[in-house]
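call fold(seq) -> tokens
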Amino acid sequence: MSLPSPAPGQVVLVTGASSGIGVELARQLGALGHDLVLAARRADRLEELAAALRTEHGIEALVVPGDLVEAAQRQALIEAVRGSDKVVVGLCNNAGFGSYGRVLDAAPANEAAMVQLNVAAVHELTLAFLPAMVQRRAGAILNVASLAAFQPVPGMATYAATKAFVQSFSEALHAELAGTGVSCTVLAPGPVPTEFGAVAGTESVDSLVPGFVSEAPEEVAAAAVRGMLRGRRSVVPGTATKALATGGRYVPRSILLPAARRARRSGDKR
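ret:
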């Protein structure tokens, strides 16, 4: 129950590979010798990354640009991979985004797009490639959740709910896959200095987070890859993040939610 060793004709698919944790996952998997399929919206960044990985590690890297918010483009990615005659032995469902603010004030289309990318894409891609992995009795799936998965987050209600789905789905799937030779690992990072905050509009809140809680993208990716190699059920990088995740699971909502609401208001005033 772990990521198979690199072999000709086998690939690891990484979504959201144009920035942040996705770039680091691709770099570290490439350094191990895995051929890759790189998916994200920004084709120029993917091509640049693919060229660098080919040069540095001598691997093959197929670029499939597209917006996985759209069901048609999710299907196009699946068909492109299947049409490449490559066997998918690893799937990293990393693509996702968030938003900050009250649901009441949010743009409904943006919230719906978040659900499509953070939930539907993870679910659809997993179901697309999982049966063949189980048939071969070899493969590893990595789904990227968040520290936000462990509790409701006022001000990021939809985002936290999507990541709670990823966390719950992945842990249950890992249990279902016992004895199949395939694993599902869920990664739940805390704050990571990437483009996420700029997209979500959380810079004011991010500034309230102590520096020791933050983890670098390369460290998070390294922990995730180790988890895939070992067939781990769950990876929560960093001691502080583990403590916060535990608190999110067990602190009563009557205490947690008012505290989270006050923290959001403090961030809004900065």
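The first helix runs from residue 20 to 31.
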